[in-house]
Design a protein that fits this description.
Length: 199
């Protein structure tokens, strides 16, 4: 079989594989640069240089810098978003969920991601809409859904979910290094206790 035909039929270095390799390199470079420089310090030029691709390759998939950041952030968010378990003990279920969230968001990578999400949402409305739908809303809904399953009315569940998620996220944004899982657990228990549920 001719060498050229062998190369084509073996699938080695096909355009699809080259494209996927470039896309992976771009996502990895963006993630690293966000961790090192934050949203404000990230440029398409820097991503292209680190990924070893041309700027046009990036713009082929992502029309703007915020669009690129949103995709990378949402890819990472999928690893954080989990549903609250339903064991029959509301406080224990929510505390376990908050414990995992806190452990993730207080790592260097997690807190950097949270800061980037916040800045990107403040500066770019289109990006904010995507990040709220893909990250903020699922976090809130996970807690709200568990509260509703306990028979708590909708408006109370909405506010309690605000308090639990906000009670964890805000202190981490302020000072991730000093925030502890014990504090997150205490905040959650205080909110659950305030609901006055019969035990």
């Amino acid at each position: 079989m001719p060498a050229d035909l062998t190369r084509v039929t073996s699938g080695a270095d096909t355009p699809r594989r080259r494209s996927e390799k470039s896309r992976t390199a771009i996502v990895t470079a963006t993630r690293e640069l966000l961790l090192e420089r934050g949203f404000d310090g990230l440029t398409i030029e820097a991503v292209a240089a680190r990924a070893g691709v041309g700027k046009q390759t990036i713009y082929r998939w992502w029309p703007t810098r915020p669009a690129l950041v949103a995709d990378v952030m949402l890819e990472d968010a999928d690893k954080i978003l989990t549903s609250v378990e339903h064991t029959g003990d509301l406080a224990s279920d929510l505390v376990a969920w908050v414990r995992k969230l806190t452990a993730t968001l207080t790592t260097a990578r997690g807190s950097a991601m949270l800061r980037t999400l916040t800045v990107a949402c403040m500066e770019h409305e289109d990006t904010a809409v995507r990040l709220r739908a893909g990250f903020s809303l699922p976090l809130h809904d996970s807690v709200r859904t568990r509260l509703l399953a306990e028979g708590i009315d909708a408006s109370t569940a909405e506010s309690a979910a605000d308090a639990i998620v906000g009670g964890v996220v805000y202190p981490i944004l302020s000072d991730a290094q000093s925030y502890s899982r014990r504090r997150a657990e205490l905040t959650t228990r205080l909110i659950v206790d305030s609901l006055g549920l019969k035990r």
